[in-house]
Amino acid sequence: MKIFFLAVSLWLFTGGKQLFAQQCSDPAASPRTVSLYQNLFKVVANKKAIFGHQDDLAYGIGWKYEKGRSDVKSVTGDYPGLYGWELGHIELDSSANLDQVPFKKMRQFIRQGYRNGAALTISWHCTNPLTGKSAWDAAPGTVSSVLQGGKNFQLFNGYLDRLAAFLSSLKDPAGRHIPIIFRPYHELLGGWFWWGKGSCSAEEFKALYRYTVKYLRVEKHLHNLLFVYNPTGNFSTAEDYLERYPGDDVVDIMSLDEYQGRKDETAQHFISRMEPRLLLMDSIAKVHGKLAALAETGMETIPVANWWTSVFARLLINTHMAYGLVWRNGGKVDNTSQEAYFAPYPGQQSEADFKEMFKKGDILFAKSVQQLHLYKKK
Ligand code: BMA
Question: Could you list the pLDDT tens digit for every one of the 378 residues in the chain?
């Protein structure tokens, strides 16, 4: 309830309006990046939101690397309006990411999505530079070890060099960098990643984030990036949400990651914990002149037949999110042999409702996003 009143009062305070101009945090952002940002604000102004899916073009239920295939397309006849990709293991110079998607293929998929006018977002489950274990190794002291003066400073700069090389290789045929919505160090209020709360101080987190942005911008001359601040939903006040906020000059999008519990949570419960938080986040974003989005969400194996219209679309539209990205159709449920998925495939029990959401038109897929010309100045 407290969150709800806070959200409402912030909303009233701002008169429901953006207080500041919708400028990219990077003053030298490329024209296409600026256009993407401003057009995403228009999506929200038109009371729409974009549907996103992680790894959509790479694989799905029962298939892998089949040209043109996508579970979302098999169900609706159209592709998502936003594609999510994951760079974990790029820092190790591997040829494939931590989910075995070859970076070469990923680059092609990214170019394909861009050519078709979709938005693109990238996450990075970066290896723990202190222990050499996975991103999920939340060893305390990791963040301080990579900051200036820390023993892994050089090693981590090498990680950033490889990350930058990949981001820099994303170009259109005219040699211009493809705009990317980049969300490093995600779920930072959770305790499971080495950059998470519990493993570093707020000041260390901010320093890590700021250093990364500056490195990519200043050292690597990358001006095709919109940066996402991406906590989990375990906050109750604006102060909690912003505790580790690295600053308006390095962030473009305020977001959160949160999933509906597969077995133990009703839709009503999920909505009641999400709606006030998303509204609060939206009002914080407005005060800071930023865009708000649901960076990651979903319900694993979608056991609720009307989940799309009754939960997903409802949340995005009611809380003014620019987009919502559901996670990949791959991996395993709770380390069992059951395949994990977050978007429906033909025959899946939420298929009809997904089509219904598609037809209604509030949630945008590839063709409608294409008509928005995200990368063109209006
Ligand atoms: C997680 C799961 C893992 C995967 C990781 C990074 O949520 O899907 O299987 O390795 O994301 O993509």
Answer: 566 666 655 555 555 555 456 899 999 999 999 999 999 999 999 999 999 999 999 999 999 999 999 999 999 999 999 999 999 999 999 999 999 999 999 999 999 999 999 999 999 999 999 999 999 999 999 999 999 999 999 999 999 999 999 999 999 999 999 999 999 999 999 999 999 999 999 999 999 999 999 999 999 999 999 999 999 989 999 999 999 999 999 999 999 999 999 999 999 999 999 999 999 999 999 999 999 999 999 999 999 999 999 999 999 999 999 999 999 999 999 999 999 999 999 999 999 999 999 999 999 999 999 999 999 997
Could you tell me the distance, in angstroms and rounded to a whole number, from the CA of residue 331 to the centre of ligand 1? 7
Kindly report the protein residue whose alpha carbon is nearest to atom 1 of ligand 1.
Answer: 331
Rounded distance from Cα 163 to ligand 1 centre (Å): 18
Strand pairing class (180-183; 225-229): parallel
**DSSP states of 56-105 as a string?**
TTTEETTEES-TT--HHHHHHSS-BSEEEEE-TTGGGT-SB-TTS-BHHH
Residue tagged active-site, from 187, 204, 300, 351: 187
- The CA–CA distances, whole Å, from 331 to 80, 222, 300 equal 20, 32, 11
Residue 187 catalytic?
Answer: yes
Q: Look at the block and give the residue holding tokens 């977002």.
A: 121
Q: Tokens representing 182?
A: 């980049």
Instruction: Give Cα 280 to chain centroid, integer Å.
Output: 18
Alpha-carbon gap, residue 139 to 198, rounded angstroms:
9
Rounded to whole angstroms, the Cα distance separating 33 from 309 reads 31
Active-site residue flag, 296? yes
Find the Cα–Cα–Cα–Cα dihedral 231, 237, 238, 240, rounded to 10°. -50
**Tokens in use for 283?**
């009002």
CA 17: distance to chain centroid? 24
pTM greater than 0.70 (yes/no): yes
Instruction: Output the residue whose Cα is nearest ligand 1's atom 2.
Output: 331
Query: Ligand 1, from 94, 97, 98, 300: best to mutate by most atoms within 8 Å of Cβ?
Result: 98
The residue from 86, 204, 258, 296 that is catalytic is: 296
